[in-house]
Structures are given as structure tokens and as C-alpha cells.
Amino acid sequence: MARKIAVIGMGNVGSTVAHYIVANGFADDLVLIDTNKDKVVADATDFQDAMPNLPFHTNIFVNDYAELKDADVIISALGNIKLQDNANDDRFAELPFTRVEVRKVAQQIKDSGFSGKIVAITNPVDVITSIYQEVTGLPKNHVLGTGTLLDSARMKRAVSEQLNIDPRSVVGYNLGEHGNSQFTAWSTVRVLGKPITEIAKKENLDLDALDNEAKVGGHRVFHGKKYTNYGVATAAVLLANTIINNALTELPVSNYREEYGTYLSYPAIVGRDGVVEQLQLELTKEELKKLQISADYIKTKYAESREN
């Protein structure tokens, strides 16, 4: 079976996603879609120019929604990052644009007969993931967002720098909205074989400062180059590969949680059937309160996105 991935939106993030896929041979067929035809054709040609020097071959299709019918995964990376500038680091700045564009794209996805999985990166990602599911009518567990997969990675980087270890040796999650109401669930974080709360006392770690670093890390990248791309693109491709490979990996992704009535980030087992199993964490009362606040915020914004 050929592995087929589509990337919709070939801006800074989408083109990074596509390059990561082509350079690593993660797909046999890659569909690239963007409203800027010159840009998407240029990217496709550039990738084809790279192929003679790559160990993999990828078949590339451009701006053809009909090609989505048998795609395994669609990665949504469309957006208007210029709206984020001067927005006081609010990921909802793009919502007036993305809520309209995503509804159009989602309808075209539905019309193509697509029956695979959707991975949304488009901001505000939890609301956008909800819109994709609503318009396409795909099962809730087949529509996911990258969510706090990136925020959790930022937390791991911050912790690992303090303890001088590989960030992959830090286990744990940031939960809730991929945005300002997300938080590090320290009760889930383990490092050096112990809960981080124990290590924090011994090493004098400031957990509030580390939590803040996970939150503002993206803002720092954005202010330096006016977009973020490598971290979130890597998260999205990991999620797409986890689905295609049926890897059954535990990941903190934006998935629909019935008890909160919304998409939000919470660890789940991801495989070929999308979200295969939802985890149930033993969170503290304070963490549960923060998660509820985050869920309520996402729901309010989703309701706003449906208004004219």
C-alpha cells in the first residue's frame, strides 16, 4: 500500500512539513495544495530538483483535491501568520481568517470523498480541529490537532536545559488549549527516575518559571523571525507517521474529550484508527481546575467561530 499524505497550506509551516516528508521518504505520494499557485508549483519543482540527491523518491501532486480521496493523512497548515503580528501573542488572532478558509477547505475535503485522518496545525488549533470535524463529518477520533505536542516538547527542552540531560529523557505533559491557557501538569512529569516534584526540591528548580518557559518559548521564536515552523512541523509529521505506521504511541494531542465537550490536548494512544484509546490521568485538583478553565475557553471561542 502506497503511503499518501496531503499538505494544505504551503506557507512557512506547510513547506517545512513537506520538506521533512520528502527528505525522509515518509510518503510515496505527496499532495500539495495552496491558493497561491505560483508558490506551490515552485515548491513542488524545488522538491523535484532535490530528489536526484535524495535516497528516496516521492510522487508529488499539486492543487488537486481529487487526489485526497485515497490519502491516508491530510495535514492542515493553512493560515495567515501576518495577523499574529502585534496580536499580543494571542493565537486567536488568526481565527477571523482561518474559520472562514477552513470551512471552505473542509467542504472540499468532504467533496473529494476523503476517508482518512486529518492532522490540524492551523491556529487556533483546538477550535480549527473542531471545525474540520464538524464540516467533514468524519469520526471525532479521525480528526486530531497537534495541540500541546509542541508545548510539551518546549517544556521538556526547558527542564532538560536545567538538568543538563537529553529532552527525550523527560516524560510528561502540557495539557489543555494550544495557547495561553495551556499548562504543565507537573504531576505527570518524571525525570531521572523520579517525579519532577522530588527533583525540583533537591535541585532548586522553579517549576513556575519552567511552566512559563514552555508557554513563551513559541512567542520568542515568533518575535525573532515572525513565524514558527520547525517545532510544530516536526510534531505534525510525527503525528502523521504515528497514524500511518499504526505505531500506537502515547501523545498529548488535541482530541475530543466527551467529559469536557470539546477538543483539547490530553494524552491518547494514536494509531491507524486515529485516537485508538484515551488516557485517564490522575491529575491534582489544581490541574483539573486549570484544565476546566482551558476547556471552557476553547468552547467559548468555538461558539464565536460559528457566529457571523
Characterize the structure shown.
- With 308 residues, this protein is an alpha/beta fold.
- It has helices at 12-24, 37-50, 95-112, 125-136, 149-163, 196-203, 207-225, 230-244, 285-305, and strands at 4-8, 29-33, 59-62, 73-76, 117-120, 143-145, 171-175, 183-191, 194-195, 249-257, 262-271, 274-278.
- The termini are far apart.
- β7 (171-175) and β8 (183-191) form a beta hairpin.
- The strands form 3 sheets. A 6-stranded parallel sheet has the order 3-2-1-4-5-6. Strands 7-8-9 form a 3-stranded antiparallel sheet, with helices on both faces.
Question: In summary, what is this structure?
Answer:
The protein is an alpha/beta fold.
Enumerate the spans where pLDDT stays under 50 for 5 or more consecutive residues: none
Q: Hey, roughly how much beta strand do the residues contain?
A: 15-25%
Name the overall outline: globular
Main sheet record? 6 strands, parallel
**Count of individual helical segments:** 9
Tell me the series of helices and strands, N- to C-terminal: EHEHEEHEHEHEEEHHHEEEH
Mean pLDDT: 95
Structural classification: alpha/beta
